[in-house]
Specification:
alpha+beta, elongated, wza like fold, 2 domains, 11 strands, three-stranded antiparallel β-sheet, single chain
Length: 183
């Protein structure tokens, strides 16, 4: 997505699929899963996952999901489709593959997400510090602006949110900060 405040533009460009929402900058509380403090949500392309596999140091490490959403693991003959799966379901899929290929008798597989790489967006333009931020499912425009250090004094009256699919949405800065655009 891209978020622009014109005439000095503020851009939020995202590869993720969630829409930024205007409203209070109150992030939801993350869920801790096996050493990860990221929210429990579906795995996507380019995400970084940590596997813990009983009796298998070859698989107990960090792996990157490829751009097609597949996880290529040593010892397994074929990649495992990870895109759209919750971490616990991916763990069950990996365990089933290990059993089916007679590599481990009763594997215990724990999957945690180290990085949701496919949900990043960039905040730039009329902000104090242009940054790239991960959208973990509930990020709002005000929170993104706060993470970028806020608007510069010369920022324009509108914020333009551009999505990866090419659609744009214009938000009034005044209405946003007055709480008149909670959605």
């Amino acid at each position: 997505m891209a978020l622009m405040v014109g005439p000095a533009l503020l851009t939020i460009a995202a590869a993720g699929q969630s829409l930024l929402q205007a409203g209070p900058a109150s992030p939801g509380s993350p869920v801790t899963i096996e050493g990860s403090n990221l929210p429990f949500q579906p795995i996507g392309a380019s995400d970084l996952v940590r596997l813990g596999v009983s009796a298998s140091p070859e698989l107990s490490q960090v792996f990157r999901v490829d751009l097609r959403g597949n996880l290529n693991l040593p010892l397994l003959r074929a990649p495992i489709s990870a895109k759209g799966l919750m971490p616990n379901v991916l763990g069950d899929e990996i365990a089933a593959s290990l059993r089916a290929q007679h590599l481990l008798v009763n594997p215990i597989v724990v999957v945690s997400v180290v990085e949701y790489a496919g949900r990043g967006f960039t905040v730039s333009g009329a902000v104090r510090t242009p940054i790239t931020v991960q959208d973990l499912g509930n990020l709002r425009v005000l929170a993104a602006l706060a993470q970028a250090g806020g608007l510069l004094p010369g920022a324009g009256p509108e914020i333009i949110v551009e999505q990866a699919n090419g659609t744009t949405q214009r938000l009034s800065v005044r209405k946003l900060f007055d709480g008149l655009r909670p959605s």
